[in-house]
């Protein structure tokens, strides 16, 4: 009976319409512009945004027990599926203010072990999943943190809609064994940002914009802008410190020292 209740609960998780409107209020930070701190917004309802930030380690691929990891906040909560059953769930979810955001992932594997890398973006409306974008990516030449761009020609994220993404790495650890899959999945939502925060962003310098996004809980824009600054000035110690602080604020400090790689481009894309 407990197994049945759990199955029903998880079914509700993935079949419910989880679009939920959210408008952030700008936070007065003025003298705090030099201090980077991510302030998480209220998570979406329990029935949405479940996922897995890290994959499963694949033996034989010389990754030192590390796994594919999405650079996204997580929220630990529970789902009540009956009077006696409480299901713990992890929500993998973040906000953006842009129509075409970037996604960041840590890939710990050597190029010789990777068969292919795939990124998928889906929209869920009326209990139906629709694939908006699917692409295979060029394989990074070395382990590190890579970014996936969402081209404007692929789709433009709509305000308030929840989007489900998947990042899949197929591995050939042993030529005598079948392919192994290491993957992560999560959610992104575009917000209706208020005029006060927009005005603050227009007056701020690039590093201050990162702090503003982080202070207002807009994760994807904070990390995207900070990564862009780091790639332009990789030896800047202030940016390295901000990077470590931002990742540590969402319990990703263990991969903060991993190299940030300017990679990877789509090999092909289609919308089934």
Task: Describe this structure as you would to a colleague.
The chain has 272 residues and is α+β, with helices and mostly antiparallel strands. 22% of the residues lie in helices and 29% in strands. It has five helices and ten strands. It has helices at residues 2-15, 195-203, 206-215, 219-232, 237-248, and strands spanning 69-70, 74-80, 86-96, 102-107, 114-125, 128-137, 144-149, 162-171, 180-190, 266-270. Strands 2-3-9-8-5-6-10 form a seven-stranded mixed sheet, covered by helices on one side. It has a three-stranded antiparallel sheet with strand order 1-4-7, covered by helices on one side. Helix 2 (195-203) packs antiparallel against helix 3, helix 3 packs antiparallel against helix 4 and helix 4 runs antiparallel to helix 5 (237-248). 37% of the residues are buried. Mean pLDDT is 83; it is low at 1-33.
Set out the fold topology.
Layout: H1 2-15, E1 69-70, E2 74-80, E3 86-96, E4 102-107, E5 114-125, E6 128-137, E7 144-149, E8 162-171, E9 180-190, H2 195-203, H3 206-215, H4 219-232, H5 237-248, E10 266-270
Helix pairs in contact: 2-3, 3-4, 4-5
User: Any idea what the CATH architecture is?
Assistant: Sandwich
Total helical segments: 5
- Name given to the CATH homologous superfamily: Immunoglobulins
CATH topology: Immunoglobulin-like
N-to-C span: 38 Å
């Amino acid at each position: 009976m407990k197994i049945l209740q759990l199955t029903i609960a998880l079914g509700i998780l993935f079949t419910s319409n989880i679009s939920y409107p959210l408008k952030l209020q700008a936070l007065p930070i003025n003298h705090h512009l030099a201090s980077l701190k991510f302030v998480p917004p209220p998570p979406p309802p329990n029935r949405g945004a479940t996922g897995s930030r890290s994959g499963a380690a694949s033996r034989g691929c010389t990754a030192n027990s590390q796994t594919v990891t999405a650079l996204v906040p997580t929220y630990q909560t529970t789902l009540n599926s009956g009077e006696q059953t409480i299901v713990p769930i992890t929500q993998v979810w973040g906000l953006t203010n842009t129509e075409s955001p970037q996604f960041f992932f840590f890939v710990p594997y050597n190029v010789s072990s990777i068969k292919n890398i795939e990124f998928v973006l889906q929209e869920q409306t009326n209990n139906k999943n629709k694939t908006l974008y699917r692409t295979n990516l060029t394989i990074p030449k070395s382990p590190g943190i890579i970014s996936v761009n969402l081209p404007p020609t692929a789709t433009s994220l709509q305000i308030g809609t929840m989007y489900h993404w998947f990042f899949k790495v197929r591995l050939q650890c042993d030529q005598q064994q079948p392919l192994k899959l290491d993957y992560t999945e999560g959610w992104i939502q575009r917000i209706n940002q208020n005029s006060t925060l927009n005005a603050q962003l227009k007056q701020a310098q690039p590093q201050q914009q990162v702090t503003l996004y982080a202070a207002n809980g807009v994760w994807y824009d904070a990390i995207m802008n900070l990564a862009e600054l780091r790639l332009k000035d990789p030896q800047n110690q202030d940016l390295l410190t901000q990077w470590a602080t931002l990742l540590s604020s969402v319990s990703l400090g263990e991969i903060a020292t991993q190299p940030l790689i300017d990679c990877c481009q789509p090999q092909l894309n289609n919308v089934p």
